[in-house]
Amino acid sequence: MVVLDAGFFVTLAKRAAPNALLVRARERKSFAVPATTIAEFWRTHRGRGEARFGWLRPRVISVDEALARRAGELLAATRGSNAMDAIVVALAERLSAAEIYTSDHGDIEKLVRSCAHPRCAVVPV
Questions:
Q1: Does residue 18 carry a pLDDT above 60?
Q2: Strand pairing partners for 123?
Q3: Alpha helices of 18-117 — where are they, by DSSP H?
Q4: How far is CA 27 from CA 56, 57, 114, in A?
Q5: Per-residue pLDDT tens for 42-83?
Q6: Class assignment of domain 2-124?
Q7: Is residue 98 helix, strand or coil?
Q8: What is the domain partition of the chain in residue ranges?
Q9: Burial (CB count within 10 angstroms: exposed 0-12, middle 13-18, buried 19+), residue 71
Q10: Rounded Cα distance, 5 and 31, in Å
């Protein structure tokens, strides 16, 4: 399982992603995004990002109360300020994801180190 953040789709929308990244992504075959990720990239970065979203067909996960609380705990533990990043990491933790694809490597890595699934690899895009 790979969790994708909004930055992954923004990167795809702004420029052609490296073929190696897309091949690697397609090899995983199982993707998830929190529903909030759609709001983040859909507002201004449609087109290519939207097409790639459809091509990858990620499973969209609703942000329920438990996921939101866990994201808040991660923010508190890291003194972070980006709730969207914390939700992505909380989802990766919940799903025991192997990787998170993100353009915000530093903040995501910090959050991952504080979660119960610290072996999740953070893949910069």
A1: no
A2: 101
A3: 19-28, 35-42, 48-56, 65-78, 83-95, 105-113
A4: 10, 13, 28
A5: 776 566 666 667 677 889 999 999 999 999 999 999 998 899
A6: alpha beta
A7: coil
A8: 2-124
A9: buried
A10: 11
